[in-house]
Write a structure and sequence with these properties.
Two copies of one chain form a homodimer.
Chain A (H helix, E strand, L loop, with lengths): L7 E2 L5 E3 L4 H20 L11 H16 L13 E2 L11 E2 L2 H18 L3 H17 L8 H6 L13 H19 L3 H16 L14 H12 L2 H13 L6 H6 L27 H18 L2 H17 L31 H17 L4 H16 L15 E2 L1 H6 L19 H10 L6 E3 L3 E4 L5 E4 L4 E7 L5 E7 L7 E5 L7 E3 L4 E3 L2 E5 L4 E7 L3 E6 L9 E6 L2 E6 H4 L6 E3 L6 E3 L4 E9 L6 E3 L5 E10 L11 E2 L2 E3 L2
Parallel strand pairs in A: 7-11, 19-25
Antiparallel strand pairs in A: 1-6, 2-8, 3-4, 5-24, 6-7, 8-9, 9-10, 10-15, 11-14, 12-15, 13-14, 16-17, 17-18, 17-25, 18-23, 18-24, 19-21, 20-21, 21-23
Chain lengths: ~650, ~650
């Protein structure tokens, strides 16, 4: 059987980003986000809620020493998701049940950051933290501070709700990134030791459980690739195969008898290979789907690939916001039903879009079609980038498409929708997730197979592929122009496949190409420079009228960017504005805004009255890229605008 | 100081409804709803959740006998809103903390029903229930089965959350209605005995508390009017004066220190006389506001009247659905902020619109302006009537303006929105509230003062006002034609003031009239028949563009009825339909529907694509009265439709 894996992505040690748009953002993450998060993890941010993250590792290390010295250690309850300062013993675990993962995500970002640019001071801090992490690891490899500190006897007894395997997954991801970025093995060894324990614990003849919050699946595969230890792949497969099988493991664990529907939230209502719809907690979902796709590639499982394709199609044709956001409902931070994409109630967690980008890349390796990178681009340039303020100091967890600040304050249904970015979150999953993605962005540009190098993201960089060297000079986000210099060619069958963005109606190249599955294929016989000009212009986009909220409305985009209206540019009551689609949309190169023609309706003072056409006046509309909204104080924002009649 | 009360309403013993539209509905309530509710109260409905209502009174009576015999009685917790069968001792109280009120609301409906038409069998059942109620009353007058059964020592210790004073209020309302309908004093005496205890318990020098769920205020005033006992009025005033005063009684009760914002839900965040916005739980709100208006009239308090007017204006200009529904959010079944009127997430509890009709009548007595009856009409013919199925056998608690059955099933944010009426509710407040309103509808037709009889609702009837007799023949809902025969005139200054509905652009009368504050004033010098023809025609109504959800959309009405589109008539995906406002709307007299011209867009199969005008085809649209929706199985419904461009 041929491998169903058609290509592999180039890793960060092979690709160095140099891009007018992204250099600044990556530097911002390195300069602001990583140091700030370090302080947060160490509880050194004045006025911020304490993270307790490092403190928990130190407490766990102490418990470990006492145990190893044969001493008695206390027991505290392991019975909830959040352990606050007030209501528990000061020696007990503090913070969220997944608090450890914040440390790991930070270490992962640092690993990638160091592979971009060495930084001794940062590495020293990271090494100290790694020391603290490793000091907490039990002799048998177990490493989760909640259980180590509070109750060793409860380890692996609540897989459904608690996060030991989730924290393990982030540990493994961090370990691989840190090893790749620094060559240091300390954390990788700790991750393997924990992985070994997990492999021993979970299998056909022992515990038949699987993670409540997925990520261990994809992380075990990463660890397998890094170490070659087959048991890691086997355990990833075990987790994915066991998941959702009746009798449900979570039934056994909780002593209940259900029909599995209770586990939709965890995507454990049926076997992954039989799933065809994205459901439940969106972040969990895309982490599982990524793991499924990775596993399908590793073990050549067509059934799993087919399930992944169905789920992917379900997301992108029925459950995806125009911004690349996913997860329409705050209740369970979850996918909703098909075409349920409310703008104002959207959840669209930053982490979920980060995970969607993971899933897209994994699918892209199995299917050389540009749809995956198209969607990844949409998520990256819109929902994910919107997650961080322009100064890198505050973050959105939730990325709505319509915001009325009064609603966020006064309507409890919208309490998750913040009109301004927050400094930090007690549940701080999104900022470090964003940091690790941005610092590893170089890994999302290329996939490569025997003869073809695929350029999936049009981001400027220098790369060493297996078959050639590339220097991509990109003015993509501004003019749509890119130059790809190909040197050091190692095969006479080389093809360079450049993704033609799906919104792009025209592209001009300086060389002949054939077009297939969204890519422009160039046959390369000698060193050369490919020049492509993608037509990038403001566009008016219509959302399907199956989405009830957007009927009669449109959105404005340009290139990869979705645009939005803000009150600061357009006045309040944005819903009273309409867009005249007959008039041209003008892109303002100086500041990246788009000016359009439209109308402003006069406010109706009566709540109800006999219909007559609205009285209105012409007005210019100013659109800004969605990713930049909320950087000028609290104000109204909307992506969709009514079309003028 | 002159009384600020300008008129009083005619009570049910003075008005007999005889109306082509309403006779059937009143009969339906008498024939179906009242007997069904009796069975429910007695736990005799097969397959339905048990009510435990009568059972609780029987248990309480036993406890009472044991106490009076000097015996020991058990103690059970009084710590939650709902006491289920499984998790508590079978001798303990069962059901909701306000379970007693279901019995009282039924008795109130029966009282009104018997005043419409004597029914020995029904009266016998009611008398038996009254016997059960009275048997449970403690020697000191206390009567709330939760506390009598579970824990006598906790009486009046949790006014904020529990419902003793609420149940008392319904007892008093039932007692007055039953006395008026039958002349029987048994229940009235019990209510007075409990009222006497409440008056003793709550006052300046004793307990300074007030009801968490308002209604006792208006009920005490009813009891005062019936008995002339001033202490009832004083205690109503005490409750309203104490409410929301700092230090907050609920702070004292709960041992906390707050700034009062926690009590917005209970409208106890500030003193009623200082309130100017409708906030919190909508039913509680309108019950309080009704009590405030009633009190203002009784004690000539202009400040309270002014607060009532501000709150009224806030509701009707900023927080009212076109259907007369109030309460935009399911969270707290509450008012939301100004202009927040989502169609699909609406709560619009049937009870809240019933309470709005109470408030409207109380205001109408203080201000002879037709706005109150206009709004009452809107609520009555739309939100309230929609609450009951056409066969009187199932009910809506929540009355949304847009329903997609899949959303109700799959979107937890809409789990309160039922696509079909339910047989009964474990929290069964709405069906009996609707029953008592419909059976007392005769009390909402007239107000009268020294010289003027105001006809507020254009419902056919025979009435004995103080100054004349009236026979109103009404074809109002069909043709807009009414005849008012005036006989037995007792003053030479008689005026008949007929409300001209606010939607009505033209009205023709057979006699001269002057117009003021929404009424047509006829000077009557001799027996005569006034004939009025209101122009009733299909209208297209625009909701203010301050309501974001309805921009670009319109609703269709005719006379008092708001119309709606249903899937069964118009196909699925109602959001793809548009209305051509240039074409005429045709009223179909035979079945009450309206036919309009519009378009059906072809479904967009792509989730996002470059905008081009929708491909669409002409179609006829069928609108039905909103109050009739959901009578033909589960299907989509919407009130607002996009205007064709």
């Amino acid at each position: 059987m041929d491998s169903i894996k058609l290509s592999h992505h180039l890793k960060s040690n092979k690709v160095k980003i140099d891009d007018g748009f992204w250099n600044k953002i990556i530097s911002l993450v390195q300069r602001e986000v990583i140091p700030y998060q370090y302080k947060a993890l160490c509880d050194k941010v004045e006025g911020a809620e304490k993270s307790h993250s490092i403190e928990n590792f130190i407490k766990a290390a102490k418990i470990k020493s006492v145990i190893e010295a044969g001493g008695q250690v206390p027991v505290y309850p392991v019975d909830k998701w959040f352990y606050d300062e007030q209501n528990s013993d000061s020696n007990a675990f503090k913070g969220w049940v997944f608090q450890d993962s914040d440390v790991y995500k930070w270490l992962e970002a640092v690993g990638y950051s160091l592979s971009i640019k060495q930084n001794d001071n940062l590495k020293k801090k990271a090494d100290e933290i790694i020391e603290a992490v490793c000091s907490a690891q039990l002799e048998n490899g177990y490493l989760d501070t909640l259980y180590i500190i509070n109750d060793r006897s409860k380890i692996f007894t609540n897989l459904k709700d608690f996060h030991e395997l989730y924290c393990f997954g982030h540990l493994a991801e961090a370990a691989v990134a840190y090893y790749n970025g620094t060559g240091e093995k300390r954390l990788l060894e700790a991750a393997c030791k924990f992985a070994d324990l997990i492999c021993e614990t979970f299998n056909e003849s022992n515990l038949k459980g699987y993670p409540g919050h997925e990520i261990a699946e994809l992380a075990l595969i990463k660890l397998y690739r890094e170490t070659g230890k087959k048991q890691y792949l086997d355990t990833a497969e075990f987790f994915i195969t066991q998941r959702g099988k009746a009798p449900y493991y979570y039934d056994i664990e909780t002593g209940r008898s259900t029909d599995g529907r209770d586990y939709i939230y965890n995507q454990a209502h049926k076997e992954p290979r039989l799933q065809d719809e994205a459901v439940g907690h969106a972040v969990r979902g895309v982490y599982l789907y990524t793991g499924m796709a990775e596993l399908a590639g590793e073990i050549n499982n067509d059934e799993l690939l087919s399930a992944c394709k169905k789920i992917w199609n379900n997301i992108v044709t029925k459950k995806l916001y125009i911004t690349g956001g996913i997860g329409s409902t705050a209740d369970g931070e979850a996918f909703s039903f098909d075409y349920d994409l409310p703008n104002d109630l959207a959840y669209c967690e930053t982490c979920a879009s980060v995970g969607l980008i993971f899933f897209a890349r994994s699918m892209n390796e199995l299917d050389s079609n540009s749809v995956y990178a198209d969607i990844a681009e949409k998520a990256l340039y819109n929902c994910v980038l919107a997650g961080m303020a322009e100064d890198g100091k505050s973050f959105f967890y939730v990325n709505p498409l319509e915001v009325l600040p009064e609603a966020s304050r006064r309507d409890s249904r919208k309490k998750h929708v913040k009109p301004v970015r927050q400094k930090w979150f007690s549940c701080a999953c999104c900022p470090p997730n964003l940091a690790r993605l941005i610092c590893s962005l170089s890994e999302y540009i290329y996939t490569e197979n025997d003869n073809t190098v695929f350029i999936n993201q049009l981001i400027g960089n220098y790369a060493e592929a297996d078959k050639c060297s590339l220097h991509l000079k990109s003015d993509y986000t501004k003019s749509g122009h890119i130059d790809i210099e190909i040197t050091n060619i190692k095969t006479d069958k080389l093809k360079i496949a450049v993704r033609m963005p799906n919104y792009c109606e025209n592209a001009k190249a300086n060389m002949c190409y054939s077009y297939a599955d969204g890519y422009m294929y160039f046959d390369i016989t000698e060193e050369c420079i490919i020049t492509v000009d993608f037509e990038i212009k403001p566009q008016i986009i219509k959302c399907s009228n199956r989405v009830r909220e957007n009927c009669g409305k449109v959105a404005v985009t340009r290139g990869p960017f979705v645009y939005a209206l803000e009150e600061v540019d357009n006045g309040s009551n944005l819903q009273m504005l309409t867009l005249d689609a007959e008039k041209p949309l003008i892109y303002n190169e100086a500041n990246g805004t788009i000016t359009a023609s439209g109308y402003r309706e006069a406010p109706d003072e009566e709540l109800y009255k006999a219909y007559s056409p609205a009285s209105k006046e012409k007005t210019d509309l100013t659109f800004i890229p969605y990713c930049k909204w909320g950087n000028r104080g609290e104000n109204e924002m909307e992506v969709y605008i009514r079309l003028e009649k």
